[in-house]
Every structure is written in structure tokens, then in C-alpha cells.
Design goal:
With 236 residues, the protein is α/β, with parallel strands linked by helices. The protein has a single domain, classed as TIM Barrel (Alpha-Beta Barrel). The protein contains nine helices and ten strands. The strands form two sheets. It has an eight-stranded parallel barrel, surrounded by four helices. It is globular, with a radius of gyration of 17 Å.
Length: 236
């Protein structure tokens, strides 16, 4: 299978968008998920030129709030369509799902609900499984492994629970205290997680998100990528 391995641009949040895109290229990646602080919707045309120049594919965007406001949601979906974004990583309000059912069908864009750990609206996998029941198949999960672990999830079992409706990943690792560490340095079963993704036929945006050392994240990102690439090679 093709692994669409990329970087969540929040990892490079102290850089400008153009510097972040150039860094993604230098890391040997072609896929990017931009967070709104890097790429406000009104900068779409400028961003497109930067992405094209570096041959980087903006496959996902978020995390974005979604409410039951059709005008605001249509502006977001129009932006996504124009940028070629396949997945909107989201934190939707419970009253927005009927509207989202209509928009994901109309635009052909996936909405992947981001779990954000304890005390958030969607802490781990179970809250998302419950929220999407009875709704359009293009509404699913963007699984943040770090936040999932903090919410008490077994990250391998989480993939099996959501199945084919996992449309994005924010890949992190944590230590015994559930604090973020470089991928491969923690306690999470990254190999089992990636193997489970393969088993459910995952074809979404597989983003490394590195929140450590914001002033100099690249060395840590490189080490994490080396580990992930080895695991992907083993899993096949």
C-alpha cells in the first residue's frame, strides 16, 4: 500500500509558512497538513504558489472548529476544494453533523474528527465512534496517538474500533508519564499501530506531529521520521 507520510505543520509553528514548506521538502516528504495559524484561508492563492514551487501536496488542513453555520462551513469547504485538500481535520459541534452529512457528499471531502485527550469534546476513539454513528461515511477520525494514550486508549485497539473510518493520523509517542517524546523513544506500540492501519485499509493522511523543541524541531523530526520509515518498511 502507499503510505501518505507527511508532516503536520504545527511541528514547525515558529517558522513562516514558506519556510515550513521548504523544510518539509528538505525532510524528503511530499505531503503536508497545514494548521490554520500557518495558512489562513485568505492566503490561499499565495500558499498555492509556495506549495507548487516546492512540489508539496497539501492533503489535509486543521484542526478547524465546525459549527452549524452553513455559510461559514461552505467557505471552509470551498477553500479546501480550491486548494486540493482531501481531509479537513476538525472539532465539530454536535449540532453540525446533519449539515456535514450534506457537505461531505456535495464536495467529496472527508471530515476527520480530531481527538484531543482528557477534558476535550472528543478525548479518544470511543467518543468519535459514538459521534459518527448514523452519519455519512466520509465523516470519521483523525487519530492523535498521543492524546489517545492520554485518554486511556490502547492505540492499536483504537484503529480496530474505528476501522475504515480513520481518515487521518497525528503520529506521536509518549513516555510512562504520558508526556510527548520523539517517536520510537516512548511506550506506544507504533509498529502494532501501523500494522493495524494496514489491516483496516487506511489510505489517509499519515502525519507526524512533533510538538517538542519548537525553536529547533528539525533534528527531532528527522530522528522520528527515520524510525517511522523503518517501521513502514517492516510492515510493508
Amino acid at each position: 500500500m502507499e503510505w501518505k507520510l507527511g508532516l503536520q505543520s504545527y511541528s514547525l509553528r515558529t517558522m513562516t509558512f514558506d519556510k515550513a514548506v521548504a523544510t518539509v521538502k528538505q525532510l524528503g516528504l511530499i505531503y503536508l497538513e497545514a494548521f490554520p495559524g500557518h495558512l489562513p484561508m485568505e492566503r490561499a492563492s499565495e500558499a498555492k504558489k509556495i506549495l507548487d514551487e516546492h512540489e508539496i501536496k497539501l492533503i489535509a488542513y486543521g484542526v478547524v472548529g465546525m459549527s452549524n453555520n452553513e455559510g461559514a462551513l461552505r467557505r471552509l469547504f470551498d477553500f479546501a476544494k480550491g486548494m486540493g485538500i482531501e481531509v479537513l481535520t476538525a472539532d465539530p459541534t454536535p449540532d453540525s453533523f446533519d449539515l456535514l452529512d450534506k457537505l461531505v457528499e456535495e464536495y467529496g471531502i472527508y471530515v476527520a474528527i480530531h481527538n484531543h485527550g482528557p477534558r476535550s469534546r472528543y478525548p479518544g476513539v470511543d467518543s468519535v465512534v459514538k459521534a459518527i454513528q448514523g452519519h455519512h461515511e466520509r465523516i470519521g477520525l483523525c487519530y492523535d496517538t498521543g492524546h489517545g494514550a492520554r485518554a486511556g486508549d490502547d492505540i492499536v485497539e483504537a484503529v480496530r474500533k474505528i476501522g475504515k473510518r480513520i481518515y487521518g493520523v497525528h503520529l506521536k509517542d509518549v513516555n510512562e508519564q504520558k508526556h510527548d517524546v520523539g517517536i520510537g523513544n516512548g511506550i506506544l506500540d507504533i509498529h502494532g499501530f501501523i500494522k493495524a492501519l494496514k489491516e483496516v485499509g487506511f489510505n489517509g493522511a499519515f502525519m507526524l506531529e512533533y510538538e517538542l523543541e519548537p525553536q529547533d524541531p528539525v533534528p527531532g523530526i528527522q530522528k522520528s521520521l527515520e524510525f517511522v520509515r523503518k517501521v513502514i518498511e517492516q510492515v510493508g
